[in-house]
Amino acid sequence: MGPLIPQGLIAGGWDFVIALLLGIAFGFILEASGFSSSRNIAGVFYGYNFVVLRVFFTAVLVCMVGLMYFHYMGWIDYNLIYVLPTFPQPMILGAVIMGFGFISAGFCPGTSYTAMAIGKIDGFVFTAGLFLGIFIFSEAFPLFEDFYYKGNMGNITIGEFLGISNQLVTFIFVIVALVAFYVTWLIEKRVRKTITPFKFE
Amino acid sequence: MNTNNNISTPRYINPYFGGVLLGLLLLVTFFITGRGLGASGAVKSAVVTTVDKVAPVHAEESDFYSKFITDRHSPMFNWMVFESLGMLLGGLLSGVLFGRIKKLRVEKPPGVSNKTRLIFAGLGGILFGIGSQFGRGCSSGAALSGTGSYSFGGLIVLLFMFGTGYVLAWFFRKLWI
Asked: Which residue of A has its CA nearest to B94?
């Protein structure tokens, strides 16, 4: 049955309507969860607020478990799902650079859009920076074109890499998440006693 | 209703509930489109479009820009662009509903000047722009959607992005606490 668009079950003209609707839901959930506030997000790095970890981990788990069940019920053909390809070295470099960006700005691209939507100038500046950063990368691309394509492992899944089933991967994720939810709850309680309470803008 | 949006009683939805909603949305997105959600892709389309308009020859000769240019339509006519426009609308909707739309402002801790905050916000944006290209996506496209669909690369981005944040947190603490 699914995925619908790759199998031509939805006419092409609906693509952008669907994109807009899914985007609206995405933006709404991010804003409603508190991701339009950089101080709220940065709390994950300082222990005063683990909302990012809670939302993010829960979402990954729901998606993993859901895909597994959809596949089991025959509702989705997992082979038609796009699995992001793996290029270990450039991806590690990219993630480290993004980590720098994350701790500097307290935003990532998606969250900065919702910050703009409710009127935060820092959200606008972040997005302008994003534009500039992609421009710099694109202009400098010939310098590191070889590195960019380095170590292509194709569309490899976590289970394939570890030599275990993705069901087991999901199970391990669930356990790790439950432990993380509990431990960060303890940490948060302790850290909050030491900080001055503040209001989110 | 509580109007004090402070840290102990935030007017945000419960994070686990938010996470379930986000996970279900991601699942629906995979079910309909076969791909996940993204965010930085729209800005990439904007960059490609701008360069293609300003310097078309340069864009065609570039190994990078040319990947995203076709004769059929503008690079802005792209799934991610519409999705990101939706994100702005969705954020606006939630902001209206929860009373968070206010005049233009800069959010920062009391000890940080507006100038410092904006410099680091801009710097963070630039770094995310560069990093998301090497990483094949940002927190949405690689870390969230990638890991959610079992991609090993998605997990790499997730771990190294947050790991770097934790390693650097001590050095950047003046910006936040």
From this structure: A28
Q: Which residues in chain B have Cβ-Cβ distances shorter than 8 Å to A79?
A: none
| CA pseudo-torsion sign A38, A43, A44, A49 | negative
- Give the closest of A22, A32, A136 to B12, CB-based: A32
The number of domains in chain B is 1
Searching chain A, which residue's CA lies closest to the CA of residue B4? A199
Mean pLDDT across A171-178: 97
Residue B159: give the domain boundaries: 106-177
Q: In chain A, what residues touch B40 (CB-CB under 8 Å)?
A: 109, 130, 134
**Cα A107 to the center of its chain, rounded Å:** 12
CB within 8 Å: B32 and A2: yes
Q: How far apart are CA B140 and CA B155, in angstroms?
A: 12
The question of ipTM being above 0.90 is answered as yes
**A54-96 pLDDT tens trace:** 999 999 999 999 999 999 999 999 889 999 999 999 999 999 9
What residues are paired with B94 via a beta bridge? none
CB atoms within 10 A of CB B95: 22
CB-nearest to B63 from A83, A102, A141 is: A141
Per DSSP, the residues of A73-94 read: TTSB-GGGS-PPP--HHHHHHH
Distance CA B91, CA A128 (A): 18
User: Nearest Cα to A55, choosing from A26, A82, A83?
Assistant: A26
Query: Does the pLDDT at position A1 exceed 90?
Result: no
Cross-chain residue pair A94–B133, CB shorter than 8 Å: yes
**C-alpha–C-alpha distance, residues B147 and B72, integer Å:** 33
* Interface-testing mutation among A48, A55, A152, A156, with chain B (most B C-beta atoms within 10 A): A55
CA A125 to chain B, closest CA, distance in angstroms equals: 5
Taking CA atoms, A105 is separated from A186, B102, B118, in Å, by 26, 21, 8
**Nearest-10 crossing angle of helices B40-54, B79-97:** 130
